[in-house]
Design a protein that fits this description.
The chain has 332 residues and is of the alpha/beta class. It is built from twelve helices and twelve strands. Keywords: NAD, Oxidoreductase.
């Protein structure tokens, strides 16, 4: 027998405002689960109910097996903008829209990227260690550099990449961008469009990655691409693990071909503690948290909950859907 209420399974990290939006509804029943729940445990949870109408996900993968367990599923909502952990073709075939939190965390990721860039330029990790280990007299062997006048290449000029580019312009940097899916007319003012990475990498002082993880971008920065980079350049990634070949990056840094790197994403996650990159003084790391500021969490909570309520009501904004064709089909 179908329940009169719509049942929504949600990761516990959903922002409080989003939880309250759902809890205030008499026609919604909420069931929380840990954000780090395994796919197997999520399937077991789904199988406890005759119907699951919506799932709000954090980091848990969601594919065909999870869809089969979540009977009557009408929408998958991601707390974030990434969707590589969701089987989009499978959801599309099943007529289930996958919704993301567009415009919720691009500011946070962009600021995190700039903090990485400044940290590398100012050698903050090395200088912090120098002070704390009593090596004050060595400070002139570790001089920082300035961002103004240096060249930065932004790879991927979506919401995040565009925000990063504007912040870099404010620091007086020379900004170019590579995005084969945007034409020159759509580039923001002051940003030079480059037609290929081959021409841009040898002259960029900083390369920052903001492209999605797709078959096309997986392993994009491997041995060959890293070798194309300007000697002493810095690589920053807040995109997705697997776009950068971490082993190849370690070799380039160990050989001192690159000046440093900063990573918010890894493959796998969490990375093993013996990852050789962690042994290098010119590598900065964070635990895939660049888009998770306190403010962004609040915004994402509201958007993720709103996406669910809109789809359950027979609406849904195509601008927030990864597979908008499903929304159009369901509406018609």
């Amino acid at each position: 027998m179908s329940t009169q209420k719509k049942r929504v399974l949600l990761a516990h990290i959903l922002g409080q405002a989003g939880k309250e939006m759902l809890a205030d509804r008499d026609d919604i029943e909420c069931v929380e689960f840990p954000n780090t729940i395994t796919p197997e445990a999520l399937r077991e949870l789904c199988n406890q109910f005759d119907e699951v109408h919506a799932v709000i996900l954090g980091v848990t993968p969601f594919g065909e097996a999870e869809l089969e367990a979540a009977r009557s599923l009408q929408v998958v909502s991601r707390i974030g903008v990434g969707f590589d952990a969701v089987d989009i073709p499978c959801m599309t075939r099943a007529g289930v829209p996958v919704m993301v939190c567009a415009n919720a965390n691009h500011r946070a990721v962009a600021e995190h990227t700039l903090s990485f860039m400044l940290g590398l330029a100012k050698r903050l990790g090395e200088l912090d260690s120098m002070v704390k280990s009593g090596r004050w007299q060595e400070r002139y062997s570790c001089l920082p550099t300035e961002l103004e006048g240096s060249r930065v290449l932004v790879v991927g000029l979506g919401r995040i990449g565009s925000r990063v580019a504007r912040l870099c312009l404010a620091f007086g940097m020379q900004v170019s961008a590579y995005d084969p899916y945007r034409d020159a007319e759509s580039f923001p003012p002051g940003i030079q469009r480059v037609a290929s990475l081959d021409e841009a990498l040898p002259v960029a002082d900083y390369v920052t990655l903001h492209c999605p993880k797709t078959p096309e971008t997986l392993g994009m920065f491997g041995e060959a691409r890293l070798a194309q980079m300007k000697p002493g350049a810095f690589l920053i990634t807040t995109a997705r693990g697997g776009i950068v070949d971490e082993a190849a990056l370690y070799r380039a840094l160990q050989a001192k071909r690159l000046g440093g790197a900063a990573l918010d994403v890894f493959m796998p996650e969490a990375p093993p503690t013996d990852n050789p990159l962690f042994s290098l003084p010119n590598v900065l790391c964070s635990p895939h948290l660049s888009g998770v500021s306190q403010e962004a969490v609040a915004r994402m909570g509201v958007i993720a909950a709103h996406n669910v309520l809109e789809v359950l009501a027979g609406n849904g904004d195509p601008d927030y859907a990864v597979n908008p064709v499903v929304l159009q089909h369901n509406i018609h």
